[in-house]
């Protein structure tokens, strides 16, 4: 082959490789997700643009992605049950399966009328959790859809609400701490009753006379590496400019660091890194490192 043919072939191959390497999905329920439990309580609307989950005394409902991913950016727009949502928990999370699992969680804990939802976040790495941070929100999450995102790359995990970072969990393998890195994770969303603990420590129970409760989800954006290709696909040295891959290097710029500080100083209501009672004064090692 002439050298121009060789380079053309190489060019075509690299286009193909970058196309298959990252799964970019504009988000349709039917394409990427399936109902996991509570069939009768899950309604897919508008040709797969929206799903609503209902909760009554008999059941809640949940859905999960058909595929598993290893690193990526995952967006979900959620509108929560308004009014008295005490006892209910609405979730959006990533999780691997099996022992020593990895997990990255958003959970929305309902409240009585007029009291704020709590956003609960957590990270499990090789089965170790106990890394909770909780927030209130600077808006009413029941009036409209808002975007909740998880950025998971080889260096860090970033939790975002409407593009504002609310939490960064850094990869500190350099000091021997586990980081979710070698297990692919599925995407899950559920709506269920947890009135034994969810609201004001379990004191406020679900009022079933108000059922069914509803949580709505839409805009199922996935920009991620397929589970089978994770580490090579997510490595930051390649495809820096590929469309939709900016999450691979994503950190926080100065404005985003300020925004994170604003959220954490005004809206954080629990931080495991300050919980000396739970950890018997011996705070987890990552707490001694900058979280930004
Ligand atoms: C990868 O995951 C397995 C299974 O959970 C875990 O036991 C192992 O320590 C991990 N290996 C590395 C290098 O992180
Ligand atoms: C519910 O409201 C109370 C009182 O405002 C607040 O302290 C609490 O964080 C809220 N969220 C939950 C889940 O209890």
Automatic annotation (TrEMBL):
This is Xyloglucan endotransglucosylase/hydrolase. Residues 23-217 form the GH16 domain. The keyword Hydrolase applies. Glycans are attached at residue 111. The lineage of its organism: Eukaryota, Viridiplantae, Streptophyta, Embryophyta, Tracheophyta. Residues 1-26 form the signal peptide. GO terms for molecular function: hydrolase activity, hydrolyzing O-glycosyl compounds; xyloglucan:xyloglucosyl transferase activity. GO terms for cellular component: apoplast. It comes from the Eukaryota. Its EC number is 2.4.1.207. Keywords: Apoplast, Cell wall, Cell wall biogenesis/degradation, Disulfide bond, Glycoprotein, Glycosidase, Hydrolase, Secreted, Signal, Transferase.
């Amino acid at each position: 082959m002439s050298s121009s043919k060789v380079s053309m072939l190489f060019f075509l191959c690299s286009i193909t490789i970058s196309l298959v390497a990252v799964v970019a999905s504009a988000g349709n329920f039917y394409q990427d997700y399936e109902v996991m439990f509570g069939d009768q309580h899950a309604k897919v609307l508008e040709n797969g643009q929206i799903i609503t989950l209902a909760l009554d005394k008999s059941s809640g409902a949940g859905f999960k992605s058909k595929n598993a991913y290893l690193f990526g950016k995952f967006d979900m727009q959620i509108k929560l049950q308004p009014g008295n949502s005490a006892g209910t928990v609405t979730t959006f999370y990533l999780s691997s399966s099996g022992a020593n699992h990895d997990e990255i969680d958003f959970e929305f804990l309902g409240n009585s009328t007029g009291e704020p939802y709590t956003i609960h976040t957590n990270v499990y790495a090789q089965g170790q959790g106990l890394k909770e941070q909780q927030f209130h929100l600077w808006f009413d999450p029941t009036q409209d859809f808002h975007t909740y995102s998880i950025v998971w790359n080889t260096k860090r995990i970033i939790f975002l609400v409407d593009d504002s970072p609310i939490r960064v969990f850094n990869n500190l393998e350099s000091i021997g701490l586990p980081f979710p890195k070698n297990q692919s994770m599925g995407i899950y969303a559920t709506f269920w009753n947890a009135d034994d603990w969810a609201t004001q420590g379990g004191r406020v129970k679900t009022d079933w006379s108000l059922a069914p409760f509803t949580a709505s989800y839409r805009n199922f954006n996935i920009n991620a590496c397929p589970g089978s290709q994770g580490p090579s696909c997510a490595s930051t040295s390649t495809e820096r400019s590929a469309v939709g891959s900016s999450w691979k290097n994503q950190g926080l710029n100065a404005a985003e660091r300020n925004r994170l500080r604003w959220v954490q100083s005004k809206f954080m209501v629990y931080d495991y890194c300050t919980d000396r009672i739970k950890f018997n004064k011996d705070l987890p090692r990552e707490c001694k490192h900058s979280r930004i």
